[in-house]
Write a structure and sequence with these properties.
By secondary structure, the protein is mostly helical. The protein is 72% helix and 3% strand.
């Protein structure tokens, strides 16, 4: 069982996936920091809510409060992350994953000879 686990861990796909998860977590932290520390204060300044979007609330009654600022914060974080992932996938599709265009294959000598025979037979049939 230990050998199988070692083989499983040493597969390239598992290691690549682990690296992706670690980088994804770090990237998510970076985007949250960007949203919380730079974008939210700017939007908060323009909406007049103070320092952060998370302070935006709609108070219907004393017990019913909608904190839509937190939702806006999470939406902005999602949109930034989704856009960057879109750009990465688009870049990978253009450069790495793009199938290489095949050059126009030269016909084999046999095919060239067969085409010449076909043309000669066609000319002979026309002349008769």
């Amino acid at each position: 069982m230990l050998k199988e686990f070692k083989q499983f861990i040493n597969r390239g796909n598992i290691v690549d996936m682990a690296i992706g998860v670690i980088i994804g977590g770090a990237f998510t932290t970076l985007v949250k920091s960007l949203t919380n520390n730079l974008i939210n204060p700017l939007l908060g300044f323009f909406t007049g809510s103070g320092h952060s979007l998370t302070e935006l609330k709609l108070r219907v009654t004393s017990n019913l409060v909608f904190t839509y600022g937190s939702f806006l914060n999470d939406t902005i974080t999602f949109l930034i992350t989704a856009f960057v992932v879109f750009l990465i996938v688009k870049f990978l599709n253009k450069t790495v994953l793009k199938p290489k265009e095949k050059e126009a294959a030269k016909p084999s000598d046999e095919l060239v000879t067969l085409r010449e025979i076909k043309e000669l037979l066609a000319k002979q049939a026309e002349s008769k």
